[in-house]
Specification:
The chain has about 200 residues and is mainly alpha-helical. It has eight helices and two strands, in the order αααααααββα. The chain has two domains: about 50 residues, no CATH class; about 130 residues, no CATH class. InterPro entries: DUF4274.
């Protein structure tokens, strides 16, 4: 983004300060309640999963994968991205207490996949996301074979795609940024028009 003047540059960074100070939609402990009130929004959940900041924990993701309208691609992305970069173990008892929330979410997804819980295959990935997903699937499968392909991590073939549906429609009002639920910049700027005239 370029600026016509130093004043315009200052206005922009002033606006960013205002945005980050005032754009949170709710307190962190109220996010699940906010999601519940929002209702079914698979596109928003899908985008959230694709851009999730994993250091922010798994509470939001765990809520998403339990929704009846959660997309197949969303659930699989969360599971495969979560497991492809960590050591797999053959039984639940092998996971230490510090990993329990993470493990329980992944186990929940695998059980829901096997039970036929995920039924909608409307959404998919971009070309690059598909490449990333396939690479993560390969890493996950290598791990499974290394430990003898235990029942704990066995999944139906559909869980590995391909997911060739349309891309999710971005929400105009809300976005998770590094785990924090905020208004989108566009939505926020409409309510703070005097703060800045954004450069083209």
């Amino acid at each position: 983004m370029s600026f016509a003047s130093s004043e315009e540059s200052k206005n922009f960074f002033d606006f960013l300060d205002i945005y980050y100070e005032n754009s949170k939609l709710c307190a962190d402990h109220e996010v699940i309640c906010w999601l519940e009130k929002r209702g079914s929004d698979p596109d928003f959940w899908h985008e959230t999963a694709l851009t999730w900041h994993w250091e922010s924990g798994v509470d939001v993701l765990r809520w998403i994968i339990r929704q009846p309208t959660c997309e197949m691609a969303t659930a699989s992305w969360i599971l495969i991205e979560a497991l492809s970069g960590v050591d797999l173990y053959p039984t639940a008892a092998d996971y230490v207490t510090s990993d329990r929330e993470f493990f329980d979410m992944c186990k929940d997804i695998t059980e829901r996949w096997r039970a036929g819980f995920y039924t909608s295959n409307r959404l998919g990935f971009t070309k690059q996301q598909s490449i990333n997903f396939d690479q993560s699937v390969a890493a996950f499968n290598r791990q499974r074979l290394r430990i003898g392909n235990p029942p704990l991590w066995q999944l139906p073939r559909a869980a590995f795609g391909p997911f060739e549906g349309k891309q999710a429609v971005s929400a105009k009002d809300a976005v998770f940024e590094r785990g924090t639920l905020r208004m989108t910049m566009q939505h926020f700027s409409k309510t703070h028009k005097s703060a800045l005239k954004l450069p083209k």
